[in-house]
Amino acid sequence: MKWFSKLSVLFAIIGVLLFCSSYLFTELFEPLMTSGFGLLIVGSLLCFGAIFRSEKGKVKFLSLAALFLLSFIIVWSEPFQFVRLLTWMKN
Known about the structure:
Blueprint: H1 3-24, H2 29-52, H3 62-77, H4 79-90
Protein name: DUF3953 domain-containing protein
Organism: Neobacillus vireti LMG 21834
Keywords: Membrane, Transmembrane, Transmembrane helix
């Protein structure tokens, strides 16, 4: 694994942890969910950087898969949470 792949996985893990902890700490729901989703997006951008640099391994796709999987789960179960999240990220 090269530099972009390692950073991609690191941001994906931190993003998923923040994203999941937002449901545990309801008083900090919006900031935790926004920062978790933002870190997942950064991890996905680093994943694309690793793809364009042709780094070896398949671990680099972890952050991209986590972003799409968590987005799908949120839209499937609570569609208005996704709108709320995007509103928070816009402001």
